[in-house]
Every structure is written in C-alpha cells, then in structure tokens.
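Q: Predict the bound structure with 2-oxoglutaric acid.
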Amino acid sequence: MVVLANPALHSIPLVGSPKHGARFPGIPVVDLSRPGAGEAIVRACEDLGFFKLVNHGIPVELMRRLEAEAVKFFSLPQVEKEKSGPANPFGYGDKRIGVNGDVGWLEYLLFVVTSDPLSCTSMTACSFRYELRRDRFRPSFLVPTCGCHCSSALSEYLVAVRKMASDVLRSMAEGLKIEPRDALSKLAMDEHSDGIIRLNHYPPYPQLRGLNRSLTGFGEHTDPQIISVLRSNDSSGLQISLEDGSWVSVPPDQASFFINVGDCLQVLTNGRFRSVRHRVAANGVKPRVSMIYFFGPPPAQRIAPLPQLMGEGKQSKYKEFTWGEYKKAAYRSRLGDNRLVQFEK
Ligand SMILES: C=C1C[C@]23C[C@@]1(O)CC[C@H]2[C@@]12CC[C@H](O)[C@@](C)(C(=O)O1)[C@H]2[C@@H]3C(=O)O
Ligand SMILES: O=C(O)CCC(=O)C(=O)O
Ligand SMILES: [Fe+2]
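A: Predicted complex:
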C-alpha cells in the first residue's frame, strides 16, 4: 500500500483510480415522486445497495444553508474547532475516525440526534436535541437562539430529511410488498431511534497536485445502521464497491440525495439487500463537504429478518442481536472490518 510519508498526515493511504475513470454511469436513479418508486428502490438495494434520489421534495436552498453553516464552522481557527473535540466518538474530529486507529484526510462534526419534543417550545420545527461530547462549547450554528440546542438550518434540515427518509422506507416496504407499510420506517423513526448526523469536510491538499492520485478521505466501510442519507456539494470523491469488488466513482449531484443500505437493512431483508461498501477519495484540489444522516433503530430493537420477507421454512442467515449489541461490536471494530460476519450463522 502506498502511503504519504509526512508524519503530520498520520500515514494516510493513497487511493487507486477506480474503474470507469472519474464517472460511473450506472448509479440507479429513483424518482420519489413517481408511482413505481418502490420497485425501483428494491431493485437498486438488491443490485448495489445504493441509489440516487431525485424529486425528493427538499429544497436545494435548505441543503445549501446547512452546508454554508458547516463551511463557516470548518473555517474557524483550529484552536476554536478543537474546543468541540476530540471526537470520542462524538464532537469535532480531525483526521482520526473512530477510536481504533483509523485515519483519513478530513475533519468532521459527529453528533447524536435525539427526538426530544420538550427541548424547544418556540419553534414548531425544532424538536431535536443535538448532543456534542462537551457542553462547554458548541459550534456557532448549534448555539441556541430559542433556549434549546438548535439552529434553524440544522433543525429544518433534520426535520425534512427525517420525513423524506420515512417516505423512502415506506416506498421500499411497498416495493417489497410487505404490510404494514411502516414496518421499516417505524424502526428508523421511533422516538428512541438512534440517529446520528455527520458533517464532513475534506480539505484541499495542494501537494497532491500533478501526482494523479487521491488521498484516503474516508476509508472503505459499510454503514452499520438501516439507511444513511447523504448529501454533498459538487465535489467528487464518493466511491462504491460493485459486487465484483471493483470501485466506481459516484458523480456528485448537490441537488440530490444518495441513499446507502446499511448492515441492519441487509439483516432485516435476510441478505436480499446489500449493505454497500463505500469510501471517499479526497482529490486534494476541490474541498468536499458532505452531510450524512444515519438512521439507526432503538438500542433495544431486535434485528432479525422481517417475518413478512421469510418464505415458509426459510431460515435466517444471521444470529439474533439487538441494535445496541451490534453497535457496541461495531465501535470496537476497525472502519474497514466486515462487521456482519460475526453475526452470520
Ligand atoms: C472506526 C469506526 C468509526 C465508526 C465506528 C467504528 O469503530 C466502526 C464504524 C464507523 C462508522 C461508519 C459509518 C458512520 O460514519 C459512523 C458514525 C458509524 O456509525 O459507524 C462511523 C463510526 C464513527 O465515526 O464513530
Ligand atoms: O463524506 C462522505 O461523502 C461519505 C462519508 C461516509 O461514508 C460516512 O461518514 O460514513
Ligand atoms: Fe459511510
């Protein structure tokens, strides 16, 4: 493996060029406003575990507002940002991902979203509480204006993305022809559901210019949750792994969302859907800013194939576990580990 020798970079590995060069034309596109969206979602989740969502109903303006607030935070002096860190796992993180030695060319904010209707009485849209690891400092856009821990761009964005993800999961249930239609969405939208939001910034790296290589921004992994909803600016870098193990680049689209199937959804469908392996290559030239909402179930939720998807006499491919148990195991693992393998029968 080629790594940059600069110790300041913690030996962040370089990434090879993906198949099809910079742009892979085969990313499935699902139009959420069309009848038949459910079938298209199911096909994409079976084939790649990944799709692009258009006509999702969220104004690009709202995405841009949150992006601008994130950029403002990441432009603060390092000493200011570090008052919210180190991420352990929540808070501001710089190059270190998780607590088990993974590194990448990025900085980020990672925090828990809890549904907490009591936290704010002044804004109808604001029913979330954001938890950073330390209370003594909050990035400016998280500083409350109404007595709770909210910013309007962030809370409006979270409310809108939750509604959209719920529509996607209902549509998915429709495509899978399972009843009740909220069989999947209720796992992700319960008041005890384990939601996480991550704002990632992959800064430029001028030394890479002319080398025709990229630096690992976020190493390869699968997301442990049910689904993840990703939006980025128009800078490329996201790559997904196809079934044959080759990597392809996802052309960025700042007006759309990208949906990842996570490990839990793979189990809930008894392996019919594929939790997608993905990574980010930092091109070093244009900064990439992404915001990802990870939809996890409540900690006590048992994760097992939905009975509605099990034909008669069919056996689960997985041992039983709760999301709390899976998450604990995930947080003990390295980023690139196959976390599901220890739960396979
Ligand atoms: C190395 C790690 C970072 C991670 C926790 C873990 O131990 C293994 C899973 C990683 C991951 C990947 C998807 C999400 O970005 C994330 C927040 C998650 O839930 O699982 C990260 C974790 C993290 O950054 O803390
Ligand atoms: O930043 C991105 O585009 C993707 C990051 C990612 O996969 C993650 O945070 O889990
Ligand atoms: Fe991810």
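A: The longest strand covers residues 102-115.
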